[in-house]
Design brief:
- The structure is a single chain.
- The protein is α+β, with helices and mostly antiparallel strands and about 140 residues long.
- The chain has helices spanning about 10-25, 95-105; strands spanning about 45-50, 60-65, 80, 90-95, 110-120, 125-135.
- It has a domain at about 45-135.
- The chain has a 6-stranded mixed sheet, covered by helices on one side.
Amino acid sequence: MAWRIVEGLPAAGLLTVGLMAGLARAQEAPPPLVANGPRAEAGLLHVGETGIRCLRLPCPGRGLYVPGARGQAERQNLLYADRDGRDPPPPMIGDPDARAAIAKAWDERRCLAVMGRLIPGEDDRPVLRVDRIVGACGRG
């Protein structure tokens, strides 16, 4: 974050302005869901509880994301987000048992690690292709 001196504004005011700007960026919505190319390989994805907490909505408490180095969700790695706690899991294809397990984990606010990828769906809306469930998400 770049700081600049504003004439007539006390130092405490500068800190408040800087913190508010950082908070506004932290509350930004994730990027839109974008599909991989048709030949993209499956990768490790987490789907369900993100561990992200917010002071106000919209808040991506559940989502589909590429896990960070310690397995955590990071806003810039969100591929799909439930911003108000009422959205369903992302559209999926794959083994019916795997899809049912993901939907159940989503409803119970748990997280599952899966091998999969986003593929183009109808009307250019990406779909999660689930190859297999790896297990519960591990967050360090």
